[in-house]
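Appendix C: a fully annotated inverse folding record. The material below is reproduced so that readers can follow the format used throughout the book. The structure is listed first as tokens, followed by the designed sequence.
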């Protein structure tokens, strides 16, 4: 049986499917992998949240790093995998889409707020840490490029991209929503993730503990290979779109 046929047979079993996505879903859109052999973290270390809050120099370092990759994020477009997940939602079988990605491409593809759960936030917005106002990153990026100084909100608060930094707590409400989705799913599919970053990687296991069937599609090993009933070692883009197309026909 081919990878596509195996995944299609798996998907046909679900009526309330929980999908969890990682970096491998977006590499086809030109978004770099952070942890891979050529990942960004091989040449730049992330600024931790407490460093950002405490140090003007670290805030400038953070903004320099974010602005370096801004054009790439801004210009990225959803690929066939993102669009296939939109189709899965339109078929009425996608219960929730939990993503570790911060690129906003699921939303850009058309995944609705009703199913999309961005556990690590989104690069498509910036947020004031004081007044919590969300806004378009572009003006803030241009301000930093012009001044090389970390911007501040009109209220005086620190401004950062609306993503979860290292050492920054995830939003409890977002985690609760993801956990609830796992509690109500009847099928779980992980795509393009090594499933090594917690607590996001723990979400599928909440469903597995109830005996829910679990499939993993990823190039290379993952931390969940031993608990999945189906592991497909392949590029997600080569498998998922064709499998979802099989559901439509």
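Designed amino acids, in order:
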């Amino acid at each position: 049986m081919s990878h596509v046929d195996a995944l299609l047979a798996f998907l046909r079993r679900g009526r309330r499917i929980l999908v969890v996505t990682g970096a491998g879903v977006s590499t086809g859109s030109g978004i770099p992998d952070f942890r891979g052999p050529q990942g960004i973290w091989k040449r730049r270390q992330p600024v931790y949240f407490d460093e950002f809050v405490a140090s003007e120099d670290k805030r400038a370092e953070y903004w320099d790093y974010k602005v370096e990759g801004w054009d790439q994020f801004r210009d990225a477009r959803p690929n066939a995998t993102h669009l296939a997940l939109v189709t899965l939602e339109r078929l009425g079988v996608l219960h929730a889409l939990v993503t570790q990605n911060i690129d906003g491409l699921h939303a850009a593809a058309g995944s609705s707020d009703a199913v999309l759960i961005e556990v690590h936030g989104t690069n498509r917005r910036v947020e004031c840490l004081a007044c919590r106002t969300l806004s378009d990153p572009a003006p803030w990026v241009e301000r930093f490029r012009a001044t090389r100084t970390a911007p501040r909100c009109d209220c005086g608060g620190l401004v950062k991209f609306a993503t979860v930094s290292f050492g920054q707590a995830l939003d409890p409400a977002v985690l609760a929503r993801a956990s609830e989705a796992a509690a109500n799913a009847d099928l779980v599919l992980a795509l393009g993730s090594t499933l090594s970053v917690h607590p996001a990687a723990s979400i599928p296991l909440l469903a597995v503990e109830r005996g829910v069937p679990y499939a993993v599609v990823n190039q290379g090993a993952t931390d969940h290979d031993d608990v999945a009933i189906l592991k497909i070692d392949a590029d997600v883009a080569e498998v998922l779109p064709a499998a979802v197309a099989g559901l439509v026909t």
